[in-house]
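ok, trying the design again with the full structure, not the truncated one.
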């Protein structure tokens, strides 16, 4: 029996454009210089308040970061509607999830810097809510790379970290997996480079979603 824990943004869905536009409007509202797209991609995966602080060169969250986080959250669904943007699945993701969801020897979960509400929208939009039996979000746990998202999912499913595989596109996913004692698979189609993923503990790299299947044999 194994537990597969998937990151969401950059791993299952391509949400960079939506996140960046929401971040751009937030920074503009607070009179901040407009962030570059590369700056936004670099923080995807972190909890939002920490991400906003990092984008401004601060290691710790201050009150303004909390205020900006609240504004970002109030904008997110508005921006999604404005852009008619549905956070599309990366090619091959649906087929991969369909292939593993019917297996009796595998449990599927999500570990994400999204809010629980944001994850729910993605899961329902793509019909994945029936496949993912456990989830931890930014509303539930400390930000990645803290291992709590993984360890709490393990506890809830009565699985050990040694039998858990974390699949993600960010260095924070790799660091989180290693901190929890789980296996880490980096995906090459997301927002971090393959070299960065390997340097931060990836045990393997998947260049297409169908390559993830071999790790569940």
């Amino acid at each position: 029996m194994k537990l597969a824990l998937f990151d969401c943004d950059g791993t299952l869905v391509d949400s960079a454009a939506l996140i960046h536009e929401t971040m751009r409007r937030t920074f503009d509202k607070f009179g901040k210089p407009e962030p570059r797209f590369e700056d936004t991609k670099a923080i995807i995966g972190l909890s939002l308040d920490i991400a906003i602080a990092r984008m401004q060169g601060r290691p710790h969250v201050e009150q303004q970061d909390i205020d900006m986080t609240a504004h970002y959250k109030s904008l997110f669904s508005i921006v999604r509607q404005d852009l008619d943007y549905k956070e599309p699945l990366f090619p091959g993701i649906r087929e991969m999830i369909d292939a593993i969801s019917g297996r009796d020897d595998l449990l599927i979960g999500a570990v994400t810097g999204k809010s629980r509400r944001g994850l729910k929208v993605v899961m329902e939009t793509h019909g994945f809510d029936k496949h993912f039996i456990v989830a931890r979000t930014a509303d539930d746990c400390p930000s990645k790379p803290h291992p709590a998202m993984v360890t709490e999912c393990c506890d809830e499913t009565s699985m050990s970290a040694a039998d858990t595989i974390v699949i993600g596109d960010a260095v924070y996913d790799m660091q989180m997996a290693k901190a929890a004692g789980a296996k880490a698979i980096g995906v090459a189609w997301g927002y971090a480079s393959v070299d960065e993923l390997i340097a931060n503990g990836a045990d393997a790299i998947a260049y297409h979603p169908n390559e993830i299947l071999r790790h569940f044999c």
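Keeping the full-length input from now on. The beta strands are 2-6, 106-111, 134-136, 164-168, 183-187, 204-206.
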